[in-house]
Specification:
There is one protein chain. This protein is α+β, with helices and mostly antiparallel strands. It has one domain: 2,3-Dihydroxybiphenyl 1,2-Dioxygenase, domain 1. 24% of the residues lie in helices and 39% in strands. It contains three helices and eight strands. It has helices at residues 13-24, 61-69, 83-92; strands spanning 2-9, 28-34, 37-43, 48-54, 72-80, 103-104, 110-114, 124-128. β2 and β3 form a beta hairpin. The longest helix has 12 residues, at 13-24. The radius of gyration is 15 Å and the shape is globular. The termini are close together. 28% of the residues are buried. Pfam families: Glyoxalase_4. This is Lactoylglutathione lyase/methylmalonyl-CoA epimerase. One of its GO terms (molecular function) is methylmalonyl-CoA epimerase activity.
C-alpha cells in the first residue's frame, strides 16, 4: 500500500485551497460535488490533500465531524491495487471494518473505511485506483 491522501474537513474549501496552493505551491487537480460535499484535491507530489466541505443543508459524516471537532484532518487514505484483498488482510489482522465491501468514492475510486477504534484512533480509508 501507498499513501494516497489526507482528508481534511473544512467549512470553506476555497480559501483553504488557495492558501495551500500559495503556501505549498500545490495545484488543484480535481474538484467535484460528491455525496453532499464539495471535494477538492490538491496535488502534494507524493499524494493529495482532499478538502471536504459540506454543501448547504447537507447531512452526513463530515457535517457531524465539523460540529463535534471543527475543521481538521478527518482521515488518512492508503492506495491499494486490490481493495477486496486488502479488506481481507486487515480484517484477518483484527482491524474492524466500517465497510465490509468497497463502495463508490470521490474521483470514481472504490473505497472502504477501517474503524478507528482498532487503528490507533485514526480513521483509515482504503482507495483502489
Amino acid at each position: 500500500m501507498r499513501f494516497d491522501h489526507a482528508g481534511i474537513a473544512t467549512d470553506d474549501a476555497d480559501p483553504l485551497a488557495e492558501l495551500f496552493a500559495n503556501a505549498f505551491e500545490t495545484p488543484v487537480v480535481h474538484e467535484e460535488t460528491f455525496d453532499g460535499l464539495q471535494v477538492t484535491f490538491l496535488e502534494m507530489g507524493n499524494g493529495y490533500f482532499e478538502l471536504l466541505e459540506p454543501l448547504p443543508d447537507a447531512d452526513g459524516t463530515i457535517p457531524r465531524y465539523l460540529d463535534s471537532n471543527g475543521p481538521g484532518i478527518h482521515h488518512v487514505a492508503l492506495e491499494t491495487d486490490d481493495i477486496a484483498a486488502a479488506l481481507e488482510t486487515v480484517s484477518d489482522c483484527g482491524i474492524d471494518l466500517i465497510d465490509d465491501e468497497p463502495r463508490p468514492g470521490a474521483w470514481g475510486h472504490d473505497v472502504a473505511f477501517l474503524h478507528p477504534k482498532t487503528t490507533g484512533g485514526v480513521l483509515v480509508e482504503l482507495v483502489e485506483h
